């Protein structure tokens, strides 16, 4: 078993493979056929992506093993990286270290939820010093986390859940966000991220959150809209989606209050610099 602050790259258990079969059409035969077909499509395309099995599975699982859909997702990723080249080109963990280590704005829980999904919380209120950390830097950190999450077969299959915590949000935070930043984040989540985003929960939203939501709402598509939930300070509503026994006391759960954060997680990122460099090479030929 991997430690609490490690990427879980263990092969899927029989139970997990059954989930993959039911939800993603994954069987040994479908997997082998899809990998072979995607390799052919990739070779004939204008895209430059690694074609080893581990890498192709990252794109085939979220697209339910339809090779054409996986290729389209790859193209979306290439387009996104091209559009935001100045922000993302050759982005390495060291480039976003302060967001994790010094500010602790993003935290990945060491446990999964009742459905085996990865849980992450993003602090967009009192912990966010807008004079020291920009909207762009937060996005770069989120983009880096994605590169690590896709390495986990369990996360590829079960997906991820994000909690956005707006506790202590003020006008300074609202002013630090932009329409272009909102569009970029939602384009990434909905079109250019090879992860199954199963739910997005908003908690501790103040009244002025409506101003923030007005930035994001125009870019939210129907599929994601159905997976977005607004709870305010009512953690019982959050517990309808994530069991109390899987949440820390910070969110009304029965687990101990969070005593770890980005500082503990950051060294994990640097262990995968080789893979991240490989990921950064993806794009158009």
TrEMBL record:
Domain CRAL-TRIO: 96-259
Pfam families: CRAL_TRIO
GO MF annotation, one: phosphatidylinositol bisphosphate binding
One of the record's GO cellular component terms: membrane
InterPro entries: CRAL-TRIO_dom, CRAL-TRIO_dom_sf, CRAL/TRIO_N_dom, CRAL/TRIO_N_dom_sf
Record-linked SUPFAM superfamilies: CRAL/TRIO domain, CRAL/TRIO N-terminal domain
CDD domains: SEC14 (cd00170)
Name under which the protein is recorded: CRAL-TRIO domain-containing protein
